[in-house]
Amino acid sequence: MRTIPTGSLSPSSPGAAEVPTRLIPVYRPLLGEQEARTVNEALRQGAISGFFGEHLGRFERGFAEYCGCRHGIATTSGTTALHLAMATLSIGPGDEVLVSTLTNMATFFAVLYQGAKPVPIDIDEDTWNLDPELLEARITPRSRAILVVHLFGHPVDMGPVLEIARRHRLYVVEDCAEAHGATYQGKKVGGLGDIGCFSFYANKIITTGEGGMLTLNDAGLADKARSLKSLAFGSERKFMHTAIGYNYRMTNLQAALGCAQLERIEAIIERKRALARFYTSRFCDLASLQLPVEKPYARNVYWMYHVAVRDAAGGKRDAVMRALAERGIETREGFIPANMQQIFQGQGWTRADDCPKANDAGARSFYLPSGPSLSEEELEFIAASVREVLESL
Length: 393
Ligand SMILES: Cc1ncc(COP(=O)(O)O)c(C=O)c1O
Prior knowledge:
The protein has a 7-stranded mixed sheet with strand order 1-9-8-5-4-2-3, with helices on both faces. Strands 10-12-14-13 form a 4-stranded antiparallel sheet. It folds into 2 domains: 33-263, Aspartate Aminotransferase, domain 2 (3-Layer(aba) Sandwich); 265-392, Aspartate Aminotransferase, domain 1. Helix 1 (33-44) runs antiparallel to helix 7, helix 3 packs across helix 6 and helix 8 (265-283) runs parallel beside helix 11. Residues 1-16 have low confidence and may be disordered. Helix 4 links the parallel strand 2 (96-100) and strand 3 (117-121). It has helices at 33-44, 55-66, 78-88, 106-113, 158-168, 219-229, 252-263, 265-283, 316-326, 356-364, 376-392, and strands at residues 71-75, 96-100, 117-121, 143-149, 171-175, 183-184, 187-188, 195-199, 212-216, 289-290, 298-299, 305-309, 332-333, 365-368. By secondary structure, it is α/β, with parallel strands linked by helices. The protein is built from 11 helices and 14 strands. Pyridoxal-5'-phosphate (PLP) binds next to helix 3 and helix 4.
């Protein structure tokens, strides 16, 4: 195998793609000395669990403030943050929650854990986010909440969503797992609805390895979420529990990592935006590829650079992914919509043909390596390879 080519990040001349010496992964987190120092500091203090260290509170306060929210409640993952949000809003059997069908299935699982019924909503073809125009027709007397997903770092068009929710007295929960720092009309996601839910998994904008966070402004809901996340211990007699709680507590070691990551969140986002600008400058003349957008109301943080072949015929997307894999470039297919998931068929709340636009996107889309630590040489190589592969098919 030959070496990764060297060269500048100029968007002008693609150059010949050379075979890299190793796999370029879809994501590699940016971790350095500051992260090592902060985690070591917590370790040396013996502050490993959430309740025994200062980092957890620091991370919760710092991240909530970053999102423009009063309260931050750290959890063990994005999935448990979503579940805790549903439980905090007392969503349960008989209730319906309108959810964007194109998402990581954790979003749907959170509704199902509570015995409630998810209602999959089809997408807008430009942003791949839930289309607000489709919401109203799916609202029934049992609807309790709208669960939006800011997919791949682009915020949902929240104005119409919030207006519909207000008129129908529905909660709005934001799944921000992929959108830390994204803004809608200048306001950060996570504080636009009633509760924001974040993930800090290793491939997220900032990471704690595994982890999640609720962000919110309502003090009553925050107290309830804080209690439920930690087994709902009693306040007078600790072991006289006030509800059936969960153990969704983030450790202080993870929070220490989060504190260090939070210090460089804007630098990471800027790097990801630069990376997206680079890819877009290289691909904008390729008629065969649909590229990510940034609507006038949005700051897209480009969690992943998610693209779609225009024509799904003949399994073209899979052929492109295979050809890139042969060159050592890892890609990942886009999400399979909820309405297409085999485990949900026959349950009575969705059918495969429910959301045609999401089905189409699911068959055409994939994402390219998008980590903030990608080198310029790697980016050059990926961009040249994508062009060559698309032009050869
Ligand atoms: C949109 C979305 N929601 C929820 C999750 C679940 O987060 P976690 O993996 O931290 O449980 C993810 C994560 O990967 C996601 O992308």
